[in-house]
Design brief:
Structural class: alpha+beta
Mean pLDDT: 95
Number of strands: 8
Largest sheet: 8 strands, mixed
Order of helices and strands: EEEEEHEEHE
Distance between the termini: 26 Å
Helix content: 10-25%
Number of helices: 2
Length: about 130
């Protein structure tokens, strides 16, 4: 498989990944500026959004940073996410990936960012 070289655009904002009950209504604070992902399963309602909007009483993992994969990419393209995740996971950096119709978003903990940036550049990716 050909290794993909991806341009990743870093958001300057802090993000949170929040968990609500599966039957919870969509909260007003979830939508707004920045990257937003809302996913419901039979077990939970998961929301990724800017951390500043998440109330303190909500179950959340905070201090994530978000990289957007700069495309476009063909919908059926292979190896895009793997080329970014592999160097990070092989070096002990946990990731949270959200895919949308037009692209992918990579979230990592802010404290891992300096090391992750080095690993991503060494893997041939461009950060902007």
């Amino acid at each position: 498989m050909e290794i993909q070289q991806i341009t990743l655009e870093l958001s300057a904002e802090d993000y949170a990944v929040s968990r609500l009950a599966a039957e919870a209504a969509l909260p007003a604070w979830a939508d707004g500026a920045g990257f937003v992902s809302i996913c419901r399963s039979a077990y939970e309602l998961s929301i990724v959004c800017l951390a500043q909007r998440v109330p303190t009483d909500i179950i959340s993992e905070r201090d994530w940073v978000c990289y957007r994969f700069v495309g476009p990419f063909a919908f059926g393209a292979t190896g895009i996410v793997l080329s970014v995740v592999r160097p990070l996971s092989e070096n002990g950096i946990g990731v949270f990936v959200v895919s949308t119709y037009d692209g992918d978003h990579l979230l990592i903990k802010r404290h891992d960012m300096p090391c992750a940036n080095i690993l991503l550049r060494e893997a041939g990716h461009t950060l902007c």
